[in-house]
Design brief:
The structure is a single chain. It contains 17 helices and 10 strands. By secondary structure, the chain is of the alpha/beta class. The strands form 3 sheets. A 6-stranded parallel β-sheet has the order 1-10-2-9-6-3, with helices on both faces. The chain is elongated, with a radius of gyration of 27 Å.
Length: about 375
């Protein structure tokens, strides 16, 4: 089967919008006593770790809250399944004249009126072709062989795009035309609201609040095994909440989840958070002391960059910080300038005529652009 999935003309929704729209639709069907078959099964597309599974859990919570029904979620990772896991194991009937299929566990659902079942078929685009064929029958017809899903069951599926460098098989158009397709996009505000409500570690939230581009750095063009996604940051949070709240002590474990660069960055940010007074003094032109430890210098530069990024209009204070940077080792003073240029490409043009700035740049120009 051709390995190609091209997403075009598909609605793109954040997690919060997705949860709001779908939970509203399902609650409306429940309140109107209409069958879930009035809506097509939903197919969620998106990169690994973006929050597709999280969205399903949030939809379940909203339905439970709005309808006072108990919601049971069956999360089926199809990549780990064989066809018999979905169809069931064949055995002989009582008089041994016909084959019958034992009902698989995923069909053991509570069909009571006060219950809503959600069958979530995850990684459907990466499953083997035989498993996909069985899963598609469930998604479209709510049956497989002689087994039928109860009427109180919502069927949803999810898969990765081929651009995510994950295994993804082309979906037949006849099948695609019978599903509701939604591409899940990353949205920091949605993630932050979820994180605050679910007890994600405050250090993780605070760090990402000031480094929003670090929430997701997944790059399918690289072979990196450790990278940042909402899912991996939740893993980091679990370590800080359950093992040790100090990123310095948990550095090696954190680096194994989100990569060395982000682990160092989180560690530096956490250190700088304990010394905000000196940062303010630097920008007020009142600080002269310079740390000597490289890790503290790195943390200082990162904290100064964030402080300036949040106050781009305060050019005089940013100038004070550049004057202070003359006292830093050259590699760190140029690191600071590069950080400033990331959020304000014209910052040097606005200050180049200032003698202190010109002197700093001229004496380290090779390090700045090298």
């Amino acid at each position: 089967m051709e390995k190609e999935i091209v997403l075009s003309n598909i609605i793109n929704m954040s997690i919060s919008d997705l949860v709001k729209k779908l939970s509203y639709a399902y609650c409306k069907l429940i309140d109107s006593s209409l069958p879930f078959t009035m809506m097509p099964s939903v197919m969620l597309w998106g990169p690994p770790g973006v929050g597709k599974s999280q969205a399903i859990r949030e939809i379940a919570s909203v339905i439970e809250e709005k309808t006072n029904k108990r919601v049971e979620v069956a999360d089926v990772r199809l990549l780990l399944f064989n066809p018999v896991d979905l169809r069931g194991i064949p055995t002989a009937n009582e008089d041994k004249t016909l084959a019958v299929w034992l009902k698989p566990k995923i069909f053991q659902m509570d069909a009571s009126d006060d219950v809503v079942n959600i069958l979530f078929l995850d990684e459907i685009s990466a499953a083997s072709q035989s498993v996909q064929a069985a899963a598609y029958q469930i998604t479209l017809d709510r049956v497989i062989g002689e087994h039928k899903l109860p009427d109180n069951c919502i069927v949803m599926a999810a898969g990765n795009r081929v651009t995510d460098k994950s295994v993804a098989f082309k979906m037949p158009k006849a099948l695609a035309n019978r599903l509701m397709h939604i591409e899940v996009s990353l949205d920091f505000i949605s993630w932050r609201n979820w994180a605050n409500n679910t007890g994600v570690n405050a250090k993780v939230i605070d760090y990402l609040e000031h480094h929003r581009d670090k929430l997701m750095n997944f790059d399918p063009s690289t072979d990196n095994l450790s990278f940042a996604t909402p899912r991996s940051w939740e893993m980091v949070s679990n370590i800080l909440n359950s093992v040790e709240d100090d990123p310095d002590k948990m550095y090696s474990l954190i680096a194994g989840i989100v990569g060395v660069d982000l682990a160092v960055d989180l560690m530096a940010w956490n250190r700088s958070a304990h010394d905000q007074t000196s940062i303010q003094n630097i920008f007020e032109g009142k600080e002269t002391n310079v740390p000597t430890d490289p890790s503290k210098l790195y943390a200082l530069v990162k904290a100064m960059a964030v402080y300036a990024m949040e106050r781009p209009e305060e050019k005089d204070k940013i100038l004070n910080s550049i004057i202070y940077a003359k006292n830093l080792p050259p590699e760190f003073s140029m690191m600071l300038i590069r950080e400033y240029m990331k959020f304000d490409a014209d910052i040097l043009n606005a200050m180049i005529d200032v003698p202190d700035v010109k002197e700093l740049i001229d004496s380290n120009v090779g390090m700045l652009y090298g």
